[in-house]
Structures are given as structure tokens and as C-alpha cells.
Design brief:
Distance between the termini: 79 Å
Largest sheet: 7 strands, mixed
Shape: globular
């Protein structure tokens, strides 16, 4: 082993359901080159699935593995190391205690990824792999990531993610959940298939199943399935026949785990996962008209490692999140039948106000994304409740998957849209009060901008034309042209001006001239 410090070398430790892995890598021409890899098995996933807790015996085992990995890091003189854990760890009731003990005993900060973070990282890595292959112009494609405890679905159409949803069921979790039934029936595969139908069959894509021409899958069992199906590999991407996948599933679905293990020379654990993964793949195939299954040889820790080593790749990932989240929000908004013209106008005004206040709000592109998403979805509540639409909008947004955003991010977006020209954030509001001080400050800034931009099209008739916004010494000057009656907009702007001044210290002045002069 080469044991010297390298300028662009880093380590990633990943705590997964059945393994604790460490990878030491460097970048060469934006491709990962592995220096070393280590892995040790644990019972973590089994304990979470069955007991909802991680035993201290398993904690001590993981802590010992991490101490050994720390010794290896010292040999390589590596300072740049990140520790991540799969989303499944959050399901352990004593998760906080485990993370705290790892910090105390191993001096390591564990970052637990959320399901939606895992998926967006993997999808980005998949799309990057496609762009450098012969498959770069795919459209109408379903991408599915099958994890240990969750399954993600996204619709991809020529560089854009249009839809994203996650379900709380993966290959390991599925087997652990239904394993007690196995001894009670000779048709265990039917039980699994019926359960998957209930979990997956209710998902509605923005495209008809017949329109989905391609299927891309990712997950820990893909390589084994590809090899057993005799799949071709081109440019680091498996090209798997759907009929081969269904045929393989038919061969194993009615035999025992031991028989699967013996037939394919895999461990009993991998035999279990092979069965459930094939059951999932077979069900997902029914959601498409795909003639092939593609699977780039990339994974979660490829994506994380590249971003540790390259700020350029990290920036591209953030851009991908921004573009895809916006498209997903647009597709979602179409289901609620409100004025797209009003949304576009409000978004234009919000962008003008946000940009004019750059020296005052101190917010970055990520926070602007929260504002954009709030504007695009602020009317969805009217579809279910015209009496209290803001509360309904809040409830809808906080319960949807916004691509690449964490639960905390989504909650911030939902809080922004709770207020109109007659309401403002106060500590009397329970939802606002639950936020941290920094989150309340952020929400207040974005609410002030959102309310004002929404007020400028209060009639939803886009009466104001040629709007210009400028920050003067003590005011935000808004000039516009209109030949219409704009007294409703002026009233709404005046109502929103007081809170805007409270947040930014600027009086709002709206000057509307006739375009006919």
C-alpha cells in the first residue's frame, strides 16, 4: 500500500444495514480511483427491522470497526474523512444515543442521510454516467433506486427530473417484514407480490405506463442480477433484458432460500435479497413498456465521494437539484388547476425583489430555491379548501416529496406560504414557533418577499407591466405601467409593506403610470 499523503485523497465511511464500509479514493479526470477499500458485516439492519432499536452490543462492534478504520486513516495520513449513515438508521428509536456514542467513543460526526437525499445523489450519479455513454439522449424514463429500506421512483425526460416519490419499503425491509409468513404458506411469493401491489401499485406517474420507454435501476443487488441474467456491459452500464429478469424471478420464487443459495453460490442473506429484489424489479417492470433495463455501475458512495473531492462536481449537483426540484413542483402544480399565468407573474416579481435585495437579505441560491418552490405551490390549498387555503397549502406541501430537499427544507417551504396580505409570522403561530431562531429569520425574510410579490398580482390578471424595482436609501421603489384599475394591487401592497419594512427596514413605494401617456 502507498502510505503517503496525497493532495486530493479522501476517505468515506458508510454505516449501512449490514455493513460498515470505508473507501479511500482520489479523483483523476473526474473519475474515482480507489486507493483502498475495507468492509465489515454487522447486524444493524436486522436489529432495526425487528427490534426498532440497536443493541449496545452492536454499537460496540461498530465502534470497534471504526477504531480500526481510524488506524488505517492515520497510516495514510488522511485528514479529509466523512462518515455517513443510511436513512434506515433514523428508524431506530435509540438513534440519537447511538450517534452520540460514536461521537464520544470514536470522535466521528455521523451524517444520517434522508431517503430523498440518498435518491437525489444516486440519480445525479446515474445521469452523469448516462451523459458520457451512448444512452445520453434518453427520454420518458423511469429511474428506480432500490435501497435496503426504501424504494425511490423518478421520471426523467432529457436532462430533467419531472417527478420524484419514495416509499418506505426496500429489499431488506420487505424480507424482514414478511419472513414470519414464509413458514405458514407454500406460496410465499404470492404474499410478497400482493404486498408490493399495495405499496407500489398506487403510485401515479405523470406519464402513462405505456409511454415509459426505458427503465433504469440501481441498488446493491443489481450486479448479481445482471450477471445471473447474462447482461451485457457497455461504458460501465449494464443492459439487462426484462424477460431475463422475469424468467429468473420465475425460477426462484417458489424455492427455498437455501435452494437459491446453493443454486447460485451466494450466502443465505444474499439469497433472501436476491428473491425480494427480483420481486420488486418484476413489479416495477409492469409500470413501464420498457424493452430493456439499464443499470450504471454507480452507487451512493460514488456520488458522496466525488463531492467530497470536487467542489465543481458539488456545484453541478446543487444546480441539478435546483432545476429538477422546480420541474417537479411545476408538474405537481398541474394537478391543482390554478392559474399558471399568476404563478409565472408572481415568480417574476419575487425574483426581481430578491435580486434587488441581495445586499440586505444575505441569502444564497439554495434559499432562493425555497422561495421559487413556495411561489409555484402557494395556490394548491384552494383545490381542497377555499375557506382556509393557506393552512391546506401548508399541509399539502409539508407532505410531498420535493426533489432533493430534506424534510426540514420542505417544512421551510411550507411555512413561507402560510401568510397572505392579512397575516404575518408571529410566535403565536405554533408552526412558526417550532422553528429554530435561524429558521424563523429565514422564513420571515422569504415571507416578506413572497407576500409582496403575490400582492403585485392580487387580481391574478397581470395588470402591472414593465415592472422595475430599485432599492433607494430608505425605500423599495416599484414602478410599473398599467391602463387597468390597479387599486386592489395598491391596497395589497400597502398591507404587505408594513411587515416588509419590519424585516428589511425599507418602506415600499408603488408608482403606477399609464402606458398610454
Amino acid at each position: 500500500m502507498e502510505k503517503k499523503k496525497t493532495s486530493n485523497i479522501a476517505a468515506l465511511i458508510s454505516i449501512e444495514p449490514g455493513l460498515v464500509r470505508m473507501r479511500i479514493s482520489k479523483l483523476k479526470n473526474d473519475a474515482l480511483v480507489d486507493v483502498d477499500r475495507l468492509e465489515k458485516q454487522t447486524k444493524l439492519g436486522h436489529e432495526i427491522f425487528n427490534n426498532k432499536k440497536i443493541s449496545f452490543e452492536t454499537l460496540r462492534e461498530i465502534s470497534g470497526i471504526l477504531r480500526n478504520y481510524s488506524s488505517v486513516l492515520k497510516e495514510y495520513n488522511i485528514k479529509n474523512c466523512r462518515v455517513i449513515a443510511c436513512a434506515l438508521l433514523r428508524e431506530a428509536e435509540n438513534c440519537a444515543y447511538i450517534v452520540d456514542q460514536i461521537k464520544i467513543q470514536n470522535d466521528m460526526n455521523v451524517r444520517i442521510l434522508e431517503e430523498r437525499q440518498e435518491k437525489s445523489l444516486v440519480y445525479f450519479e446515474i445521469l452523469c454516467a448516462l451523459q458520457s455513454s451512448k444512452y445520453k439522449n434518453l427520454d420518458k424514463t423511469l429511474i428506480s433506486y432500490i435501497g435496503a429500506g426504501n424504494i425511490g421512483f423518478s421520471i426523467y425526460d432529457r436532462e430533467k427530473i419531472l417527478f420524484s416519490q419514495n416509499i418506505d419499503m426496500g429489499s431488506s425491509k420487505l424480507y424482514e417484514l414478511l419472513e414470519p409468513v414464509r413458514e405458514q404458506t407454500a406460496d410465499f411469493s404470492l404474499v410478497v407480490e400482493e404486498y408490493l401491489e399495495r405499496m407500489i401499485g398506487r403510485i401515479k406517474f405523470p406519464l402513462d405506463n405505456s409511454e415509459i420507454e426505458n427503465l433504469i435501476v440501481s441498488g446493491s443487488e443489481v450486479s448479481l442480477i445482471a450477471n445471473l441474467c447474462g447482461a451485457k456491459e457497455v461504458d460501465g452500464i449494464y443492459d439487462i433484458s426484462p424477460s431475463a429478469v422475469n424468467g429468473l424471478y420465475d425460477q426462484i420464487k417458489n424455492i427455498s432460500v437455501q435452494a437459491i443459495s446453493d443454486r447460485y453460490d451466494v450466502s443465505a442473506k444474499n439469497a433472501q435479497l436476491l428473491f425480494t429484489a427480483l420481486a420488486i424489479y418484476s413489479r416495477i417492470l409492469k409500470m413501464t413498456s420498457a424493452k430493456r433495463i439499464l443499470s450504471p455501475k454507480v452507487g451512493l458512495w460514488d456520488a458522496v465521494m466525488k463531492q467530497i473531492l470536487s467542489s465543481k462536481i458539488e456545484k453541478k449537483f446543487e444546480e441539478h437539484i435546483g432545476v429538477s426540484a422546480i420541474f417537479c413542483a411545476k408538474v405537481l402544480s398541474y394537478h391543482f388547476y390554478f392559474s399558471q399565468e399568476h404563478i409565472e407573474a408572481t415568480h417574476h416579481y419575487a425574483t426581481l425583489i430578491f435580486d434587488s435585495l441581495k445586499k440586505l437579505h444575505g441569502l444564497d441560491k439554495r434559499k432562493k430555491l425555497f422561495l421559487d418552490l413556495a411561489v409555484m405551490l402557494h395556490e394548491v390549498g384552494y383545490y381542497v379548501n377555499s375557506k382556509d387555503p393557506r393552512a391546506s397549502t401548508f399541509d399539502i406541501i409539508k407532505n410531498v416529496d420535493l426533489y432533493g430537499l430534506t424534510e426540514a427544507d420542505v417544512l421551510l417551504v411550507a411555512n413561507i406560504v402560510r401568510y397572505n396580505e392579512l397575516t404575518t409570522p408571529t410566535l403565536e403561530d405554533a408552526e412558526y414557533r417550532r422553528l429554530t431562531d435561524s429558521e424563523r429569520l429565514l422564513v420571515s425574510k422569504l415571507v416578506a418577499i413572497f407576500r409582496l410579490s403575490n400582492a403585485l398580482d392580487k387580481s391574478k390578471k397581470q395588470k402591472l407591466k414593465n415592472i422595475k424595482i430599485k432599492v433607494l436609501d430608505e425605500s423599495l421603489a416599484i414602478t410599473a405601467e398599467s391602463d387597468d384599475n390597479v387599486y386592489l394591487e395598491k391596497w395589497a401592497v400597502e398591507k404587505c409593506g408594513e411587515f416588509f419594512e419590519e424585516v428589511f427596514g425599507l418602506k415600499v413605494r408603488l408608482d403606477v403610470k399609464s402606458g398610454m401617456i
